[in-house]
Amino acid sequence: RSWGCRIPFKIGQPKKQIVPKTVERDFEREYGKLQQLEEQTRRLQKDMKKSTDADLAPKPQPVTDV
């Protein structure tokens, strides 16, 4: 009995997924928005740290003559 050379499917070869161009463009646009948001968040954290550090810094006391 001979099974022949027919292979019903290949093992270990994932099927290449076709992504429509519109989906790819939407993804790239959303990814760009996310990058901008992360950059804004980093700047905000940096500004908040500066503000907090300034608030916690010792303030010069006015000199009063008695």
From TrEMBL:
InterPro entries: AH/BAR_dom_sf (IPR027267), BIN3/RVS161-like (IPR046982)
Record key words, sorted: Cytoplasm
SUPFAM superfamilies the record matches: BAR/IMD domain-like
Compartments where found: Cytoplasm
GO MF annotation list: lipid binding
Composition bias type Basic and acidic residues, residue spans: 39-53
Any single Gene Ontology cellular-component annotation: actin cytoskeleton
Chain intervals for the UniProt region annotation (Disordered): 38-66
Entry annotated with the keyword Cytoplasm: yes
BP GO annotations: actin cortical patch localization; endocytosis; plasma membrane tubulation
Primary location recorded for the protein, binned into one broad class: cytoplasm
Name this polypeptide is given: Uncharacterized protein
